[in-house]
Design brief:
Elements: H1 15-34, E1 40-49, E2 55-66, E3 70-72, H2 78-84, H3 87-107, E4 114-118, H4 121-125, H5 129-139, E5 147-151, H6 153-157, H7 161-172, E6 176-182, H8 191-194, E7 199-202, H9 204-209, H10 218-229, E8 233-237, H11 242-250, E9 255-257, H12 267-276, H13 280-291
Helix pairs in contact: 3-5, 5-7
This protein binds ligand C2E and magnesium ion (3 copies).
Length: 292
């Protein structure tokens, strides 16, 4: 990049750039300590079955409780973790923490349904995902079938024998597999039949367009049809409005996740929600009331 800039290459060494480099080095070193210091926490966002309207599971979403910075959202530090390779270690922590939480709830008679965790492509390539997951399930005596992994399309692009073996072993151990942000990655669809996938999650960017413009629903509808014809469950993420939900109900989407029902919640609030057992009908009533 500096070479392309040619004679103007000196521009790269401005004070602003120095600051950026320095911030990045600080971020990397703070992240290196964050795991050992126990600064990561998981929040849980409910997923609701459209038929019946009950909570059927949660997505575990990581946050970084960075001293002096408050609760940092994942988009501000996951990319840095992926670049430095630390994502393998943090990803391992996320898997273990989710398994421990499921087991803790289970021991207290609380049933969250399934809990999904996000898996970065790097965990597939450099880490030992299979060992991490099977190890965490065994260590925490996690109930069979409660853990789900959210994979991205890029994880599945390299369809080596090893990928197929890993996914098959995980499935055999009762782990559910879903494809996150479906439709935003490379669209080689062949892997859908080659891999033992259970669910597709329609990305929020497509849900946002539903009920907005005349053909704003085109991609959402295509994913719903594709998923159903392959007998996969389809989950809509980022559902915020009654109009979006109405569309998803009409086209028999299986599950929804989004602010319309609930944002991601800290553990205590998640437990409170599980005790209160709200349904989608409660959310409908709340929004109808708010709309007057
Ligand atoms: P994602 O897996 O697609 O997760 C959904 C994101 O959408 C979450 O953001 C969630 O809070 C947000 N969201 C849910 N419903 C709504 C809604 O109705 N409206 C809007 N505007 N947003 C909604 P969050 O928690 O900030 O996470 C962002 C991304 O960070 C995740 O996207 C995921 O790719 C990544 N991520 C989170 N936790 C982990 C993790 O443990 N490991 C890895 N590798 N990535 C993670
Ligand atoms: Mg996800
Ligand atoms: Mg997603
Ligand atoms: Mg998404």
């Amino acid at each position: 990049q500096a070479k392309q800039a040619g004679r103007n290459a000196f521009r790269f060494f401005t004070p602003a750039m120095n600051l950026q480099v320095r911030r990045r080095l600080e971020l990397d070193s703070a992240l290196r300590n964050a795991v050992t210091r126990g600064e990561f926490v998981l929040h849980y966002q409910p997923k609701v079955q459209l038929a019946g309207g009950h909570v059927v599971g949660f997505e575990a979403l990581v946050r970084w409780n960075r001293p002096g910075h408050g609760l940092v959202p994942p988009n501000d530090f996951i990319p840095a973790l992926e670049e430095s390779g630390l994502i393998t270690e943090v990803g391992r922590w996320v898997i273990a923490a989710a398994c421990e939480q499921i087991s803790d709830w289970s021991a207290r008679g609380i049933d969250p349904g399934h809990v999904s965790v996000n898996v970065s492509p790097r965990q597939f390539v450099t880490g030992d995902l299979e060992r991490d997951v099977l190890g965490a399930l065994a260590n925490h005596h996690t109930p069979l079938g409660a853990l789900e992994l959210e994979l991205t399309e890029s994880s599945l692009m390299t369809s080596t024998e090893a990928t197929i073996a890993t996914l098959t072993h995980l499935k055999d151990a009762g782990v559910q597999l879903s494809i996150d942000d479906f439709g935003t990655g490379y669209s080689s669809l062949a892997y859908l039949r080659r891999f033992p996938i259970d669910k597709l999650k329609i990305d929020r960017s497509f849900i946002r367009e539903v009920a907005r413009s005349s053909d704003g629903d085109a991609i959402t509808l295509a994913i719903l049809r594709l998923g159903h014809s392959l007998e996969l469950e389809v989950v809509a993420e980022g559902v915020e409005t009654a109009a979006q939900l109405q569309y998803l109900r009409r086209h028999e989407c299986d599950q929804m996740q989004g602010y319309y029902f609930s944002p991601p919640l800290p553990v205590r609030e998640t437990e409170r929600l599980l005790l209160a057992r709200p349904t989608l009908a409660d959310a409908d009533a709340r929004w109808a009331l708010a709309a007057g």
